[in-house]
Amino acid sequence: MPELAEVEYFRKQWDPGLGGKVETVLTHPKARIFRDIPAAAVRKGLQGRTLERSSTHGKQMMFEFSDGAWLGLHLGMTGKLFTADAGYEPVKSDHLVLVSGKRQLVFSDYRMFGKLTLDVSEDGSSPDWWANLPPRTLDRGFTKKYHAVFVRRFPRTPIKTLLLDQRGFPGIGNWMADEICWRLQIPPQTPSGKLSNEQVDAIWKMTRQVSRDAIRVIADDWSKPPNSWLFNHRWKDGGTCPRRGCKTDLQRADLRGRTTCWCPICQR
Ligand SMILES: [Zn+2]
């Protein structure tokens, strides 16, 4: 599932359409991505408007159009955005296509766990659900104190599981949560209430570091992270710990429903 850096990467894929007016909106009305708003309302709402700017918030994306139209997108498991030229013929999994001049902005999602919303406001202000999202891990509002208060609210939750909670850690997903625990040498199963204050602060710092690293490497051009990260070693059985001098076989197990990978030596 796309995490904050992958979402940022996909957001940029519609940048060629900035400043362009949407002439035609093509949809698959029965696609499940239209479960929160009918496709007809999206067609009507975006027709004739200009794409002005876009941003991400964790796993959410927002595309702002002229005259106060706000298109929120969530990629789900397999959602993708791309820009195609005028000759492109949309395929079955392209559920939303915005035709603008010589370009087509495409939202494609073959498994359809993704979804979208459209809000149109008279005064141009952002929809409440967007304005009320918690601070992003790289926002000023994501302070050490704010983080510690959140972590201490869930003493029985394993720290890995808590790092996946979008209320506290928007955009952190499975690989980033494993990366944070591994870099800090904290066992992912550790109940949050057992963490020392120093560990809680270290998790705050590392969450920001891994967020920055992920954006730097992945968000521009989908580069592969370096081999010194857990990232390249965690996906399948047989990976070894990349920490210098360790090389222990990594362990993988289900933790509260999510596959979790850790080093049994470094994270004892
Ligand atoms: Zn190790």
Main features:
268 residues; alpha+beta; N-terminal domain of MutM-like DNA repair proteins; Helicase, Ruva Protein, domain 3; four-stranded antiparallel β-sheet; elongated; binds zinc ion
SSE inventory with pairings:
Layout: H1 4-12, E1 24-27, H2 39-46, E2 51-57, E3 60-65, E4 69-74, E5 80-85, E6 94-100, E7 103-108, E8 115-120, H3 128-131, H4 144-152, H5 159-163, H6 174-184, H7 197-219, E9 251-255, E10 258-262
Antiparallel strand pairs: 1-6, 2-3, 3-4, 4-8, 5-7, 6-7, 9-10
The structure holds zinc ion.
What does this structure look like?
The chain is an alpha+beta fold and about 270 residues long. It has two domains: about 5-130, MutM-like, N-terminal (N-terminal domain of MutM-like DNA repair proteins, Alpha-Beta Barrel), CATH 3.20.190.10; about 145-260, Helicase, Ruva Protein, domain 3 (Orthogonal Bundle), CATH 1.10.8. The protein has seven helices and ten strands. The strands form three sheets. The chain has a four-stranded antiparallel sheet with strand order 1-6-7-5, covered by helices on one side. A four-stranded antiparallel sheet has the order 2-3-4-8, covered by helices on one side. Strands 9-10 form a two-stranded antiparallel ribbon. A hairpin with a 2-residue loop joins strand 9 (about 250-255) and strand 10. Helix 1 runs parallel beside helix 7. The protein is elongated, with a radius of gyration of 20 Å. The two termini are about 30 Å apart. The relative contact order is 0.14. The structure holds zinc ion. Zinc ion (ZN) binds next to loops.
